[in-house]
Amino acid sequence: YSDWPHLAQVLEVTRVVTDKRTGRVRSEIAYAITALEPERARAAQLLRAWRAHWAIENRFHWVRP
Q1: CB of 6 within 8 A of CB of 34?
Q2: CA R_g for the chain
Q3: Residue-wise pLDDT tens for the chain (65 aa)?
Q4: Is residue 40 within 8 Å of residue 6, measured between CB atoms?
Q5: CB 46 within 8 Å of CB 36
Q6: For residues 61 and 37, what is the distance between their CA atoms, to the nearest angstrom?
Q7: Is 59 helix (H, G, I), strand (E, B) or coil?
Q8: Paired residues of 12 in beta bridges
């Protein structure tokens, strides 16, 4: 049950990030929600869409080193 109307899926992505200046490696967890039902967008499709979104964001905005 959810108070968010149209909520269909919740996504969790664990990623490993390397600081380019220090070489330090850390992991972080990010979450997202979508109204797309699993029949319309499976996990692999959602991950591709997520990555495509951030590729666009990173191209058009300053990215912290």
Answers
A1: no
A2: 15
A3: 788 899 999 999 998 999 989 999 999 999 999 999 999 999 999 999 888 877 777 777 776 66
A4: no
A5: yes
A6: 31
A7: helix
A8: 31
